[in-house]
Amino acid sequence: MKETKLIQVQGKPLGSGVLPAVITPLVGKTQAAILEEVAAIVPKKPDLLEWRIDFFESIGDVPAVIDTALAIRRTAAGIPVLLTRRNATEGGQPLKIDEPAVVAMYTAACRAKCVELIDYELSNAPADLKALREVSKANGIGMIMSYHNFQMTPDGATLDSKFAAAKAFDADVGKVAVMPTNERDVLELLAATSRAREALDIPLISMSMGGVGSLSRIMGWVYGSAATFAVGKSSSAPGQIAIEDLRTTLAIVRGAVNGK
Questions:
Q1: Residues with a known catalytic role
Q2: Cis geometry, peptide bond prior to residue 20 (ω within 30 degrees of 0)
């Protein structure tokens, strides 16, 4: 069995190499609200802050985006920042800007080097994926390429293809998040994650959402998911667990899996 590849941020493993790394979302609508979130979350010591910029009311104002990202970093006490615009078709908020403006916003953020990672969906135009891969790599910004399905869990072959597509587009990290319709769907997602760990040489993030899917947030690292999402102050997806509860549970599971 191959070891789970760790997510790297500026040459260092996220979370000091402890699996899984814990990511918490920021979903405020204004800079002030976001900085309140950051101040509340930092003492809980997540490994990564995900700024869900699709919630941000000034997403179309590039200088405001960069200024807010820099403000997050000043308040984050060294915790790296992931910039994510989640597409409305994959569970995000409706946007007032079009896709070219989204690509321009990501491009400006990469060039300003105001975040450590960006996330962009595999469902976007291949030309946009390639353009953002080029600008992120040129500026030393990590890139997650992701797939989300809030309606159901596709079959194993489809899940395999999503992980493989992230690798094919030269992503630093491949991410798959799906909604289970029954408990067996959670097993389908975990099995696909395990296959991708064996087949690919990039770090992976995977999760099954919702109540029964929360099991994957606790156990996914055993099957190859390098990170999991937790609630720091506000949730960004169904099934996320409060960071304090998740850390306690992860410690128990790690002890059992590692025989300690």
A1: 148, 175
A2: yes
